[in-house]
């Protein structure tokens, strides 16, 4: 089962796998709806072994440029929405004797760049939540994995991403460096470069990042053409 904002985006999956896939529209900022969808999913399936929390979007602009509504909405979506999904799933996973939660984060949950303050706040926040929950639920046979993707050719930048009402005072400021990244021509140049298409994924036995992680962690890092943006997953338990 998958939750989406537009069922038309997954119509091909529903047509190809009518007996194995179904979708529901869900706004993760609606906590009551999150709980209802999770309840229906477990009731219909009997058992769900893996719960993937993937809701989120980007918000660009200096902190001062963001509106109160933009701040509230990205926190409600990227952070609170993921927290409530995981909380709703935990009683079912405990009752069935285990399972795994996969939380999609970002390399932005380990580093921070100007012009992305609220996005980073949500990703650092959800990683802290997931790391704590992993220790709480391990005795029940429930594992938690954080996935931290680097750059990828999706609609993240040009579809769901939002931009603040930019202020002239920040022209030429590092907070507006994201404008070049949002230019489709910039992404197209990187995506078709030989370096980007031949870069390999290496396996690191321990994280070299900012935090000290549990010994059970396994990090996978892939570097994006010369810019040092990495993608990896962390198996917390």
Automatic annotation (TrEMBL):
Region entry Disordered, spans: 198-237
GO MF assignments: oxidoreductase activity
Listed Basic residues bias regions: 225-237
Lineage top rank: taxon: Bacteria
InterPro entries: NAD(P)-bd_dom_sf (IPR036291), SDR_fam (IPR002347), SDR_oxidoreductase (IPR051911)
Keyword Transcription attached: no
Keywords associated with the record: Oxidoreductase
Residue spans of biased composition, Basic and acidic residues class: 214-224
Family: Belongs to the short-chain dehydrogenases/reductases (SDR) family.
Protein name listed in UniProt: Short chain dehydrogenase
């Amino acid at each position: 089962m998958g939750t989406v904002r537009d069922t038309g985006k997954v119509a091909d999956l529903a047509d190809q796998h009518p007996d194995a896939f179904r979708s529901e529209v869900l706004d993760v900022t609606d906590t009551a709806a999150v709980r209802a969808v999770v309840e229906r999913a477990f009731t219909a399936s009997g058992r769900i072994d893996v719960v993937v929390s993937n809701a989120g979007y980007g918000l660009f602009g200096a902190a001062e440029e963001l509106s109160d509504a933009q701040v509230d909405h990205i926190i409600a979506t990227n952070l609170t929405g993921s927290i409530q999904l995981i909380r709703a799933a935990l009683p079912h996973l405990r009752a069935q004797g285990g399972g795994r939660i996969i939380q999609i984060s970002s390399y932005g949950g380990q580093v921070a760049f100007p012009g992305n303050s609220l996005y980073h706040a949500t990703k650092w926040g959800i990683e802290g939540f997931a790391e704590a929950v992993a220790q709480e639920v391990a005795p029940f046979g429930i594992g938690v994995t954080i996935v931290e993707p680097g750059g990828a050719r999706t609609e993240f930048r040009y579809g769901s991403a939002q931009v603040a009402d930019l202020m002239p005072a920040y022209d030429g400021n590092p907070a507006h460096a994201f404008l070049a990244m949002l230019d489709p021509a910039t992404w197209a140049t990187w995506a078709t470069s030989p370096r980007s298409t031949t870069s390999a994924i290496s396996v690191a036995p321990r994280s070299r990042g900012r935090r000290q992680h549990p010994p059970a962690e396994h990090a996978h890092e892939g570097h994006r053409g010369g810019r040092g943006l990495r993608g990896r997953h962390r198996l917390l338990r």
